[in-house]
Amino acid sequence: MSFEQPILPKDAAAAEGKVNVQINGTWYRFPKGTRIADACNSVGVHVPCFCYHPKLSVAGSCRMCLVEQGMPPRLAPGATPTYNEDGYQTIQWMPRAVVACANTVAENMGIRTNGTVCTQARRAVLEFLLTNHPLDCPICDQAGECKLQEYTADYGSPTHRFTEAKIKKGKHIEIGPRVNLDQERCVLCRRCVRFMKEIVGEEVLGVVGRGGHNAIACYPGKTLDSNYSMNVVDICPVGAMTSRDFRFRMRVWFLKSTPTIDVNCGTGTNIFVWSREQQVYRITPRQNDEVNSCWMPDDHRLNYKYINSERRLLTPLMKTDAQAPQRAAAWEPVIKAVAEQLRLCSPAQTAFIVSARLTNEELFLAGNLARLLGVEALDIVPRHDEADDMLISSDRNPNSVGAQIVLHKDGSTLDNIRRSIKLGKIRNLVVLGEDVTAEAGISAGQLAKLDYLLVVDHTESATTEAADVVLPGVTFAEKYGTMVNVAGRIQRLSRAIAPLGGARADWEILAALLRECCGDLPEAAAHATSAQKVLDVMAKQIKELNGVSWLSVGNQGQQIIDTGVSIPLIERERARK
Amino acid sequence: MSEITYKPGHEPHPRETRRIFRNIDRVGYTPSIKSFLADGGYEALKKALAMEPAAVIDEVKKSGLRGRGGAGFPTGVKWTFIPKGNTKPVYLVCNCDESEPGTFKDRFIVHQDPHQLIEGMVIACYAVQAHYAIIYMREEFPEAAKIMKKALKEAEKNGFVGKNIQGTGYDLKIILHRGAGAYICGEETGLINSIEGVRPYPRIKPPFFPAAIGLYGCPTIVNNVESLCQVRQVLLRGGEAYASEGAQRSPGTRIIGVSGDVKKPGYYEIISGSITYGELLYDLCGGPKEGHTFKAIIPGGASAKVMRCDEVLTGRNPDGSVRKMSIFDVPMDLDSIAAHGSMSGSGGVIVMDDSRSMPEMLRNLNRFFTWESCGQCTPCREGNPWMLKLSTRICEGKASPEDVDLLKSVADNICGRTVCAFGEACSWPVQAFTTKFREEFLALTKPINAFKPHNPESAEARKYITRED
Amino acid sequence: MTEPTDAINVLAEDIPSPGEKFYPSFEPTPELETEAREYVAMYPEGRELSAVLPIIHMVQEKFGFICARSIPWIAEMCKSTPIHVAGVVSFYPGIRRKCPGKWHIRVCHTIACAMSGGEDLLKFICEKIGVNPEEMTEAEPMAVSADGLWSIEAVECLAHCGFGPNVMVNDTLHSQVTPEKMDEILEEYRRRD
User: Fold this and answer.
1) To pair with A569 at 20 to 30 A between CA atoms, which of A181, B85, B382, B443?
2) Does C125 share its domain with C55?
3) Quick check: B117 and B141 in contact, CB under 8 A?
4) Which of C8, C68, C91 sits opposite A173 (nearest CB)?
């Protein structure tokens, strides 16, 4: 009788560098070195954590992630292990729970989160955390996204056994210009301390005191004023660190979060825009390990107020003749009038200045419009400033790379256009999404001398004031589209709120102009019924975008070219691994 | 060697065997190297230096020497945990943070016979090939710090520490690092963090031993003062001879510190397992104070579980039959008492007689552990103040019977869920006191107290809903 | 009910103490710096932070306590940050944030000493040196007499449990201290004044 020796699961797993782990009765395979917490979460077995954050060093101090763990029994010397019919060894469960954040998986390990060992540990830790907590949830800004609330609902005890006097600590401390601290709500997970030390490299936060009087603090005279300070608000699992910009403005459960990207620089930090109805209330970073990890700079985060600004353009404006004031007009007649005017313009005397803050789709349609009109003078406005060696790129346009791919423009001919305007050679100017009196260096006086100035933008500026026609576009939060970041990654913009008032998405305006200007519709315009469809056309026409679609880009983006540019923070994160 | 005379009133009991404490309270003996050399000092080191380092480790392993800091881990085995093929520097730290209430042995060594420790340290360092060692001394020993610094200088001058020790080419730098009054620094990873200059939070386990990753991320051996002195004894007597003396699983001598309600409290060095708790307390310590009887014993420092003196324990005779016994029949080695649910720890025996209120005793311990909790991890940080508040209310007569169960339950919730062994240290006393002396706790409670407010906010709110009588 | 404490302001201000007249006030002189560097040199290269406790001890010995002004200096000496040093200073009970009296008395009140009369001794000494025991709180365990001559603090275990109650006056341990013996001890220190 001969049976073929079956391959044991442990050997099969080892061959792929993995180990077999039983979680709540089911066997899984994980790469060696995976943390128990990550392993459990990856298969849908929730492990609650306060102090553990995958991007920070492990503290192991909150004790919330305790799980029941077992290993095969230790063998007597010389004994051989026995395997059950599935090829696993029996698991000997340990009476004490272990932390899932600091321990890694091992071959034939068993994890249980549904037994009494685990549930009692969780309940105990939660009870302890709540003993000296002020329980001020009704007025706490973290309410609704508080881990303490969430876990209490999931694992907490329905009764309250602590009736003693609570330990009092500091409240509403202005620990930085943008962050407030409440030491009583703090669970002392030290995520904020570790973030500032390990990611930002500034040791401004620390724990002071001893035992039950431990508290997070900043040294007197120093403040948490880093441009990354608000990330501590995001990683604070409770309401200890709150955003001074957002606090008391809206209950988070009324807000809708839309995944999109930051447009303040070429990094294209992934973000969530939090809105209710037509109002944007806050922006938070969204994890993307190729772009921004879990973080974002404060100034970018807070640069959202222009979205709901009083100075937004909400209706098309048109001058009936050069000297008359701008008057509100209806979209259809304005588009017709603009198209008519553009057709009359001599292409040699016309220029397009487009913004690299526009999406690829908009740049593509703008390029098509210029080409069909026969206009050759077209460029973007370059924008450079100091990089911060973290996430802020020296390229302050969010889509310079997209402009190069789509239009083959990098701003190098802007000088020529400017000179031609100055010399009066350019008589007609189309400005898309820029205030050209700023970085582009064209004075209001020069604009006034033009025969015809068409501006598409979302907010009033010196340029829109000088325009013959103003078509109200939208901000990044009100439209769909794609942009390519400095590292060559194409990413999606998603619409968080509908265009305000009578404004229309820029791509929509350009598509309408294209349709109106050209009798025989080019493919781009014909399909320009949505930004996604424009992308489909681009994917066929532009080499770099071959095979790219709205779906393929997804919420995490898609690397399309190698620009040789890297993001310092991401580089450091990789080096740490 | 010559006859030793001790200071009057400090003469050892005939049943003692003074090895480590040989020169403690000895007439004419000073902490100087002169005294030590005259007493045969640094001979063990010379012996060790003539051996291969691995042979020294083997000798210590053979001796069966177990650590005297409280956990009783085999010293020689601990030394072998340094990873094979290690290329990083190896550090040795002497834990002289003696702070377990009831324990007072290391104090005498570092004050009166510092060279004994230095010699033991150099031997240990040589064995694990450490070239940098630290004596971590608690802040409350300022005199000892001066004595130790002087002793280190003397040892260096005499070629026992420093460069090229005894012409063997072996270099060792020993420095003294003073703590600042924190019990948690006695936990070896807390101690390492204290040396590194960060808040002395104990480190998460694994790694379970700093021998793998310790000080500055390098292999680090942490040994208690007495353990290192015992290493010297191992070298003097030879591993096998050392192993043959005393209890089989914990050979050698032990220093027992007795405090509390006995006629003659103090320190006693005995052969491990050679006497029972009863012999210790009645013979060596002279029995209970006049007119009193023994009520309870904490057998191994404040964190050990308390034992009732009238508790009936089950022991086994050599033939395997069962016999009834009491704590007084338990031999004083490292393991025997552990079989009865407590521990022998660092040898600090605290004795309480019938005049003591056990809730008061527990309140004192709760205060100690609340004060000493580092506050790093949740159960210990939040649980200790809670237990203190509960035991205080019980002592003040403001608690209900349910509060006694709650107190025990809080301890149960801490135990086994913390980063370091402090979680057990603070909860064991509570579990043992509330279980074994439950009637004393209950006697102080009143059911009506369950309906009374225990915090200012509730008291304030109560004004509006009930009439105050 | 204890007043809410704001851990940040606690770090910023020194608590005035009558003991200050017996200690010089902190000055970061070049000599002090040289001494600090000697402590740094004790530790392996690049481990300046290890010297934080020795430097703190040095400052405390010379100036009585760790004043707010000394914290940034200590941080500079061991290449750390003030918040880190503050975290260390505020952790250890052996590091004082308030100036003690000329004679600092530490009375052990842990279990063995408490059993031999430590708690009563504490009250006795308070009365003798003119300090209200209520002044010793969890937040500020040390109380200083109005003349600045004495300060008193209840401490946990001094590791001399067999011979309680134990009292430390500055660096000297006194054991089996009865009220009568304490009277003599206090008198002796008073005479040394």
Assistant:
1) A181
2) no
3) no
4) C8
